Amino acid sequence: MPRKAVLEGGKRDEILNAALELFLRNGYEATSIRMILEHVNGEVGMFYHYFNSKQEVFDKAVAFFFKRSGEKISAIVTKHSTLRFMLEQLYNCYTSSMEELSQLANGSIHWSILYALHDQTLEAMLPAFRSMIHGLLQEAGKDDGYGKEYVASFLLKGISGLMHDKTFFALPPEIRVQETMELIGRTLQIPYEIFED
């Protein structure tokens, strides 16, 4: 007999929040369904009412967190016009997301989960970043389609690498944004004035 559709909210969201916290702190392998259920005072039957497996609750917990982050990122790109302002907001959003994750895990995120979340963060940011790059190329008259699908991903992963470079991240925020804009401009071969429009 097929399972009934499960609505969002309530105990389901409580399980997702508890699962995310435990996965962040302990890693995937060291977190059990039993641990999650103890955290929410639940029973095994309740877990399987909402989820089919530990993998499913992990995937949904990560998606649950990044749905909110993705919505914030999309709002940044669609609301604001200058690249400088968008980059400042994207850096702030990324930093606050990582701080929120660190708080959920009591300051200690398991490396395996951090790696997975980093990939998910980039995936959540990519559509908005791709739209921004496409707009810059259009404005510069270079929107010929060649490599357009890949350049946004290439740049976003490069910027992500910079954010994890201790020397770069020690720079004042305005210098990080300036350096990033120059890197994007040189890569896309577009005039710098476009960034300030």
Question: What is the topological layout?
Answer:
Elements (H helix, E strand, L loop, with lengths): L9 H17 L6 H8 L3 H7 L3 H26 L3 H22 L6 H29 L8 H16 L2 H4 L3 H16 L4 H4 L1
Brief summary:
With 197 residues, the protein is mostly helical. It has ten helices and no strands.
Offer a few descriptive terms:
76% helix, mainly alpha, 197 residues, 0% strand, Tetracycline Repressor, domain 2, single chain, 10 helices
Describe the protein.
- The protein has 197 residues and is mainly α.
- The chain has a single domain (10-196), classed as Tetracycline Repressor, domain 2.
- It is 76% helix and 0% strand.
- The protein contains 10 helices and no strands.
- The protein has helices at residues 10-26, 33-40, 44-50, 54-79, 83-104, 111-139, 148-163, 166-169, 173-188, 193-196.
Mean pLDDT over the residues:
79
Please report the first level of CATH classification, the CATH class: Mainly Alpha
Q: What's the helix-strand series?
A: HHHHHHHHHH
The count of DSSP E runs of length 2 or more, i.e. the number of strands, is 0
Poorly predicted spans: 1-7
Q: What quaternary form is this?
A: single chain
- Shape designation: elongated
